[in-house]
Amino acid sequence: MADRTLLMVGTRKGLWLGTSDEARVDWEFTGPHFDMEEVYSCLVDTRGDTPRLLAGASSSWLGPQVWRSDDLGASWQETPNGAVRFPEDTDAKVERVWQLVPGCEDGVVYAGTEPGAVFRSTDRGETFQLERALWDHPHRPQWNAGFGGQAFHTVLPHPSDPQSVTAALSTGGVYQTSDGGRSWEPRNQGIRAEFLPEGQQYPEFGQCVHKVTRHPARPERLYLQNHGGVYRSDDHGGTWTSIAEGLPVDFGFPIVVHPNEPDTVFVFPLNGGDKRYPPAAKARVWRSRDAGESWEELGDGLPDAFYVAVMRDAMCADAHERPGLYFGGRNGTVWGSVDEGENWHQVVADLPDVMVVRAAAI
Protein backbone atom coordinates (compact mmCIF):
# COMPACT_ATOMS: atom_id res chain seq x y z
CA MET A 1 0.00 0.00 0.00
CA ALA A 2 1.38 3.40 -0.98
CA ASP A 3 2.25 5.59 1.99
CA ARG A 4 3.95 8.51 0.24
CA THR A 5 3.13 10.94 -2.52
CA LEU A 6 5.56 12.32 -5.06
CA LEU A 7 4.83 15.59 -6.86
CA MET A 8 6.79 16.69 -9.94
CA VAL A 9 6.52 20.40 -10.77
CA GLY A 10 8.04 21.45 -14.09
CA THR A 11 8.62 25.17 -14.66
CA ARG A 12 10.23 27.51 -17.16
CA LYS A 13 13.38 27.44 -15.01
CA GLY A 14 13.73 23.88 -13.78
CA LEU A 15 12.03 20.98 -12.03
CA TRP A 16 11.05 20.69 -8.37
CA LEU A 17 10.23 17.41 -6.58
CA GLY A 18 7.92 17.35 -3.58
CA THR A 19 7.26 14.47 -1.20
CA SER A 20 4.62 14.05 1.47
CA ASP A 21 3.05 11.34 3.56
CA GLU A 22 -0.39 9.99 2.73
CA ALA A 23 -2.01 13.01 4.41
CA ARG A 24 -0.55 15.25 1.64
CA VAL A 25 -0.61 18.42 3.74
CA ASP A 26 3.05 18.99 4.67
CA TRP A 27 5.55 18.82 1.81
CA GLU A 28 9.31 18.79 1.40
CA PHE A 29 10.75 19.98 -1.92
CA THR A 30 14.09 19.62 -3.66
CA GLY A 31 15.20 21.65 -6.65
CA PRO A 32 15.78 23.10 -9.01
CA HIS A 33 16.73 20.04 -10.98
CA PHE A 34 17.84 21.15 -14.50
CA ASP A 35 18.32 24.71 -13.25
CA MET A 36 17.25 27.37 -15.79
CA GLU A 37 15.98 24.75 -18.28
CA GLU A 38 12.36 24.65 -19.45
CA VAL A 39 10.53 21.56 -18.20
CA TYR A 40 7.28 21.15 -20.14
CA SER A 41 6.70 17.44 -19.44
CA CYS A 42 7.37 14.88 -16.74
CA LEU A 43 6.20 11.42 -15.76
CA VAL A 44 6.19 9.22 -12.67
CA ASP A 45 6.23 5.72 -14.17
CA THR A 46 5.21 3.37 -11.37
CA ARG A 47 5.36 0.21 -13.48
CA GLY A 48 7.95 -2.36 -12.44
CA ASP A 49 9.76 -2.80 -9.15
CA THR A 50 11.26 0.70 -9.09
CA PRO A 51 9.46 3.92 -10.02
CA ARG A 52 11.13 5.77 -12.87
CA LEU A 53 10.95 9.54 -13.23
CA LEU A 54 11.15 11.08 -16.69
CA ALA A 55 11.55 14.78 -17.41
CA GLY A 56 11.48 16.56 -20.75
CA ALA A 57 13.89 19.46 -20.22
CA SER A 58 15.07 21.96 -22.81
CA SER A 59 18.34 23.86 -22.53
CA SER A 60 18.88 27.05 -24.52
CA TRP A 61 22.43 25.82 -25.20
CA LEU A 62 22.05 22.06 -25.67
CA GLY A 63 18.45 21.69 -26.80
CA PRO A 64 15.85 19.22 -25.49
CA GLN A 65 16.60 16.05 -23.55
CA VAL A 66 14.57 13.33 -21.83
CA TRP A 67 16.19 12.68 -18.46
CA ARG A 68 15.47 9.65 -16.30
CA SER A 69 15.92 8.80 -12.64
CA ASP A 70 15.49 5.45 -10.89
CA ASP A 71 16.19 6.84 -7.41
CA LEU A 72 13.36 9.38 -7.13
CA GLY A 73 15.47 12.24 -8.41
CA ALA A 74 18.63 11.78 -6.36
CA SER A 75 20.50 11.33 -9.65
CA TRP A 76 19.61 11.69 -13.32
CA GLN A 77 20.78 9.98 -16.51
CA GLU A 78 20.57 11.23 -20.06
CA THR A 79 20.50 9.38 -23.34
CA PRO A 80 23.28 10.32 -25.77
CA ASN A 81 21.99 12.66 -28.47
CA GLY A 82 18.91 13.54 -26.50
CA ALA A 83 16.72 10.40 -26.82
CA VAL A 84 13.98 12.17 -28.84
CA ARG A 85 15.37 13.16 -32.25
CA PHE A 86 13.96 13.31 -35.76
CA PRO A 87 15.51 11.09 -38.44
CA GLU A 88 17.94 13.00 -40.66
CA ASP A 89 15.72 12.76 -43.74
CA THR A 90 12.93 14.77 -42.07
CA ASP A 91 14.96 17.99 -41.98
CA ALA A 92 13.36 18.80 -38.60
CA LYS A 93 14.58 19.18 -35.04
CA VAL A 94 12.81 18.88 -31.70
CA GLU A 95 12.28 22.19 -29.94
CA ARG A 96 10.51 20.90 -26.82
CA VAL A 97 9.11 17.67 -25.40
CA TRP A 98 5.54 18.57 -24.41
CA GLN A 99 4.25 15.19 -23.27
CA LEU A 100 5.52 11.98 -21.64
CA VAL A 101 3.00 9.21 -20.92
CA PRO A 102 3.14 5.43 -20.35
CA GLY A 103 1.64 3.02 -22.85
CA CYS A 104 -0.37 -0.06 -21.89
CA GLU A 105 2.54 -2.40 -22.65
CA ASP A 106 5.48 -2.89 -20.33
CA GLY A 107 8.29 -0.51 -21.15
CA VAL A 108 6.32 1.58 -23.64
CA VAL A 109 6.41 5.37 -23.23
CA TYR A 110 5.11 7.98 -25.67
CA ALA A 111 6.46 11.49 -26.19
CA GLY A 112 4.70 14.40 -27.89
CA THR A 113 6.90 17.15 -29.27
CA GLU A 114 7.18 20.56 -30.85
CA PRO A 115 7.08 20.63 -33.86
CA GLY A 116 4.03 18.38 -33.92
CA ALA A 117 5.14 14.75 -33.75
CA VAL A 118 4.69 11.65 -31.60
CA PHE A 119 7.54 9.34 -30.62
CA ARG A 120 7.41 5.86 -29.06
CA SER A 121 9.84 4.17 -26.67
CA THR A 122 9.94 0.47 -25.80
CA ASP A 123 12.63 0.77 -23.08
CA ARG A 124 10.92 3.06 -20.52
CA GLY A 125 12.08 6.26 -22.15
CA GLU A 126 15.73 5.57 -22.87
CA THR A 127 15.34 5.70 -26.66
CA PHE A 128 12.47 6.87 -28.89
CA GLN A 129 11.38 6.30 -32.50
CA LEU A 130 9.25 8.65 -34.59
CA GLU A 131 5.66 7.63 -35.38
CA ARG A 132 6.38 8.12 -39.04
CA ALA A 133 2.88 7.73 -40.47
CA LEU A 134 1.62 10.60 -38.34
CA TRP A 135 4.59 12.79 -39.29
CA ASP A 136 3.98 12.02 -42.96
CA HIS A 137 0.22 12.59 -42.70
CA PRO A 138 -1.11 14.61 -45.68
CA HIS A 139 -2.77 17.07 -43.28
CA ARG A 140 0.51 18.07 -41.62
CA PRO A 141 1.41 20.91 -44.02
CA GLN A 142 -1.88 22.56 -43.03
CA TRP A 143 -1.40 22.29 -39.27
CA ASN A 144 -0.84 25.75 -37.85
CA ALA A 145 0.94 26.87 -34.71
CA GLY A 146 -1.07 27.98 -31.71
CA PHE A 147 -0.01 30.83 -29.46
CA GLY A 148 2.36 28.49 -27.61
CA GLY A 149 3.67 26.77 -30.73
CA GLN A 150 2.71 23.71 -32.77
CA ALA A 151 3.01 20.60 -30.64
CA PHE A 152 1.41 17.27 -29.84
CA HIS A 153 0.63 18.16 -26.24
CA THR A 154 -1.71 15.20 -25.62
CA VAL A 155 -0.98 11.52 -26.21
CA LEU A 156 -3.57 9.03 -24.88
CA PRO A 157 -2.63 5.38 -25.33
CA HIS A 158 -5.62 3.08 -24.95
CA PRO A 159 -5.43 1.41 -21.52
CA SER A 160 -5.85 -2.13 -22.88
CA ASP A 161 -5.39 -1.99 -26.67
CA PRO A 162 -1.78 -1.33 -27.71
CA GLN A 163 -2.89 -0.70 -31.29
CA SER A 164 -4.96 2.34 -30.32
CA VAL A 165 -3.56 5.78 -29.50
CA THR A 166 -5.33 9.15 -29.48
CA ALA A 167 -3.27 12.33 -29.86
CA ALA A 168 -4.07 16.04 -30.08
CA LEU A 169 -2.22 19.16 -31.15
CA SER A 170 -2.72 22.89 -31.50
CA THR A 171 -3.92 23.77 -34.03
CA GLY A 172 -4.61 20.52 -35.82
CA GLY A 173 -7.15 18.79 -33.61
CA VAL A 174 -7.54 15.18 -32.51
CA TYR A 175 -6.03 12.25 -34.42
CA GLN A 176 -6.28 8.56 -33.70
CA THR A 177 -4.69 5.30 -34.78
CA SER A 178 -6.31 1.89 -34.40
CA ASP A 179 -3.61 -0.11 -36.20
CA GLY A 180 -0.52 0.53 -34.14
CA GLY A 181 0.46 3.75 -35.88
CA ARG A 182 0.35 2.56 -39.48
CA SER A 183 -2.43 5.08 -40.19
CA TRP A 184 -4.01 8.04 -38.39
CA GLU A 185 -7.41 9.67 -38.90
CA PRO A 186 -8.85 12.97 -37.61
CA ARG A 187 -11.51 12.65 -34.89
CA ASN A 188 -13.00 16.13 -34.60
CA GLN A 189 -16.65 15.85 -35.57
CA GLY A 190 -18.65 18.31 -33.45
CA ILE A 191 -15.69 20.36 -32.16
CA ARG A 192 -16.06 24.04 -33.03
CA ALA A 193 -13.19 26.14 -34.35
CA GLU A 194 -14.56 29.50 -33.23
CA PHE A 195 -11.75 31.45 -34.87
CA LEU A 196 -12.86 30.39 -38.37
CA PRO A 197 -15.53 32.24 -40.43
CA GLU A 198 -19.20 31.35 -39.99
CA GLY A 199 -20.10 28.27 -41.98
CA GLN A 200 -16.55 26.91 -41.72
CA GLN A 201 -16.31 26.39 -37.97
CA TYR A 202 -16.65 22.59 -37.95
CA PRO A 203 -13.80 21.45 -40.22
CA GLU A 204 -12.44 17.91 -40.51
CA PHE A 205 -9.27 19.10 -38.75
CA GLY A 206 -7.68 22.36 -37.65
CA GLN A 207 -9.35 22.84 -34.27
CA CYS A 208 -7.28 24.31 -31.43
CA VAL A 209 -7.66 21.50 -28.91
CA HIS A 210 -6.07 22.28 -25.54
CA LYS A 211 -6.29 18.90 -23.73
CA VAL A 212 -7.97 15.49 -23.89
CA THR A 213 -8.36 12.93 -21.10
CA ARG A 214 -10.23 9.74 -20.25
CA HIS A 215 -10.75 7.16 -17.50
CA PRO A 216 -9.09 3.75 -17.96
CA ALA A 217 -12.22 1.89 -16.86
CA ARG A 218 -14.28 3.55 -19.58
CA PRO A 219 -11.85 4.19 -22.42
CA GLU A 220 -14.48 4.93 -25.07
CA ARG A 221 -15.44 8.10 -23.17
CA LEU A 222 -13.17 11.08 -23.77
CA TYR A 223 -13.28 14.59 -22.32
CA LEU A 224 -11.84 17.58 -24.16
CA GLN A 225 -11.02 21.19 -23.34
CA ASN A 226 -10.96 23.26 -26.50
CA HIS A 227 -10.00 26.82 -27.34
CA GLY A 228 -13.55 27.82 -26.60
CA GLY A 229 -15.60 24.74 -25.69
CA VAL A 230 -15.66 21.76 -23.34
CA TYR A 231 -16.71 18.44 -24.88
CA ARG A 232 -17.38 14.77 -24.21
CA SER A 233 -17.26 11.86 -26.61
CA ASP A 234 -18.93 8.55 -25.80
CA ASP A 235 -17.74 6.77 -28.95
CA HIS A 236 -13.95 7.08 -28.66
CA GLY A 237 -13.76 10.41 -30.40
CA GLY A 238 -16.07 9.58 -33.29
CA THR A 239 -18.40 12.44 -32.33
CA TRP A 240 -18.22 15.17 -29.70
CA THR A 241 -20.97 16.86 -27.65
CA SER A 242 -20.64 20.16 -25.80
CA ILE A 243 -20.76 19.93 -22.00
CA ALA A 244 -19.89 23.60 -21.37
CA GLU A 245 -23.34 24.66 -20.16
CA GLY A 246 -23.14 25.65 -16.50
CA LEU A 247 -19.52 26.83 -16.63
CA PRO A 248 -18.74 30.54 -16.27
CA VAL A 249 -16.72 30.50 -19.52
CA ASP A 250 -15.81 27.71 -21.92
CA PHE A 251 -12.14 28.63 -22.41
CA GLY A 252 -9.36 26.94 -20.46
CA PHE A 253 -6.41 24.60 -20.77
CA PRO A 254 -6.51 21.58 -18.40
CA ILE A 255 -9.17 18.92 -18.00
CA VAL A 256 -8.70 16.08 -15.49
CA VAL A 257 -10.80 12.97 -14.92
CA HIS A 258 -11.19 11.50 -11.43
CA PRO A 259 -8.97 8.38 -11.29
CA ASN A 260 -11.70 6.29 -9.61
CA GLU A 261 -14.89 7.77 -11.05
CA PRO A 262 -15.34 7.91 -14.85
CA ASP A 263 -18.19 10.43 -14.56
CA THR A 264 -16.26 12.95 -12.43
CA VAL A 265 -14.19 15.54 -14.27
CA PHE A 266 -12.46 18.81 -13.31
CA VAL A 267 -11.65 21.96 -15.30
CA PHE A 268 -10.06 25.34 -14.55
CA PRO A 269 -11.93 27.98 -16.60
CA LEU A 270 -10.07 31.05 -17.88
CA ASN A 271 -11.06 34.17 -19.71
CA GLY A 272 -10.24 33.97 -23.39
CA GLY A 273 -8.67 36.62 -25.58
CA ASP A 274 -5.93 38.67 -23.94
CA LYS A 275 -7.15 38.07 -20.35
CA ARG A 276 -5.79 34.62 -19.61
CA TYR A 277 -6.80 34.53 -15.96
CA PRO A 278 -9.93 33.19 -14.22
CA PRO A 279 -13.25 35.07 -14.35
CA ALA A 280 -13.19 37.89 -11.77
CA ALA A 281 -9.57 36.80 -11.11
CA LYS A 282 -10.84 34.18 -8.63
CA ALA A 283 -8.97 30.88 -8.71
CA ARG A 284 -11.68 28.25 -8.98
CA VAL A 285 -11.85 24.60 -10.00
CA TRP A 286 -15.14 23.41 -11.44
CA ARG A 287 -16.28 19.81 -10.97
CA SER A 288 -18.89 17.66 -12.67
CA ARG A 289 -20.00 14.37 -11.16
CA ASP A 290 -22.33 13.47 -14.05
CA ALA A 291 -19.99 13.50 -17.05
CA GLY A 292 -20.52 17.20 -17.74
CA GLU A 293 -24.29 17.41 -17.46
CA SER A 294 -23.92 19.84 -14.54
CA TRP A 295 -21.06 21.71 -12.85
CA GLU A 296 -20.23 23.02 -9.37
CA GLU A 297 -17.71 25.66 -8.34
CA LEU A 298 -14.97 24.69 -5.86
CA GLY A 299 -12.82 27.35 -4.25
CA ASP A 300 -12.62 26.99 -0.46
CA GLY A 301 -9.06 28.04 0.40
CA LEU A 302 -8.17 29.34 -3.06
CA PRO A 303 -7.15 32.98 -3.68
CA ASP A 304 -9.56 35.65 -4.93
CA ALA A 305 -6.78 37.56 -6.69
CA PHE A 306 -5.22 35.15 -9.19
CA TYR A 307 -4.23 36.98 -12.38
CA VAL A 308 -2.46 34.06 -14.06
CA ALA A 309 -3.30 30.99 -16.11
CA VAL A 310 -3.14 27.29 -15.31
CA MET A 311 -1.64 25.52 -18.29
CA ARG A 312 -2.85 22.33 -19.97
CA ASP A 313 -0.58 19.92 -18.05
CA ALA A 314 -0.39 21.90 -14.82
CA MET A 315 -3.35 20.10 -13.23
CA CYS A 316 -3.51 16.43 -12.22
CA ALA A 317 -4.68 13.86 -9.68
CA ASP A 318 -2.75 11.24 -7.75
CA ALA A 319 -3.74 7.58 -7.37
CA HIS A 320 -4.53 7.29 -3.67
CA GLU A 321 -7.81 5.65 -2.69
CA ARG A 322 -9.18 9.15 -2.12
CA PRO A 323 -7.17 10.96 -4.75
CA GLY A 324 -5.44 14.27 -4.29
CA LEU A 325 -5.97 17.01 -6.85
CA TYR A 326 -3.27 19.56 -7.74
CA PHE A 327 -2.78 22.57 -9.98
CA GLY A 328 0.03 25.04 -10.54
CA GLY A 329 -0.17 28.61 -11.79
CA ARG A 330 2.11 30.77 -13.85
CA ASN A 331 2.81 32.78 -10.70
CA GLY A 332 4.78 29.84 -9.29
CA THR A 333 2.23 28.57 -6.78
CA VAL A 334 0.95 25.00 -6.52
CA TRP A 335 -2.31 24.19 -4.76
CA GLY A 336 -3.59 20.84 -3.52
CA SER A 337 -6.81 19.26 -2.31
CA VAL A 338 -7.16 15.91 -0.53
CA ASP A 339 -10.97 15.86 -0.63
CA GLU A 340 -11.68 16.02 -4.37
CA GLY A 341 -11.61 19.80 -4.57
CA GLU A 342 -13.83 20.68 -1.62
CA ASN A 343 -10.98 22.34 0.29
CA TRP A 344 -7.59 23.61 -0.91
CA HIS A 345 -4.23 24.47 0.61
CA GLN A 346 -1.05 25.92 -0.82
CA VAL A 347 1.57 23.24 -1.44
CA VAL A 348 4.46 25.46 -2.53
CA ALA A 349 4.97 29.06 -3.64
CA ASP A 350 7.52 31.36 -5.29
CA LEU A 351 8.60 28.95 -8.02
CA PRO A 352 9.03 30.06 -11.63
CA ASP A 353 5.90 29.83 -13.79
CA VAL A 354 4.53 26.30 -13.68
CA MET A 355 4.08 24.35 -16.93
CA VAL A 356 3.41 20.80 -15.72
CA VAL A 357 2.38 19.04 -12.49
CA ARG A 358 2.41 15.27 -12.07
CA ALA A 359 1.64 13.29 -8.91
CA ALA A 360 1.87 9.63 -7.91
CA ALA A 361 1.33 7.47 -4.88
CA ILE A 362 4.56 5.56 -4.23
Automatic annotation (TrEMBL):
Pfam families: BNR_6
Gene3D superfamilies found in the cross-reference section: YVTN repeat-like/Quinoprotein amine dehydrogenase
UniProt GO BP: xyloglucan metabolic process
InterPro entries, per the entry: BNR_rpt, WD40/YVTN_repeat-like_dom_sf, Xyloglucanase_GH74
Protein name, entry field: Exo-alpha-sialidase
Organism: Nocardioides agri
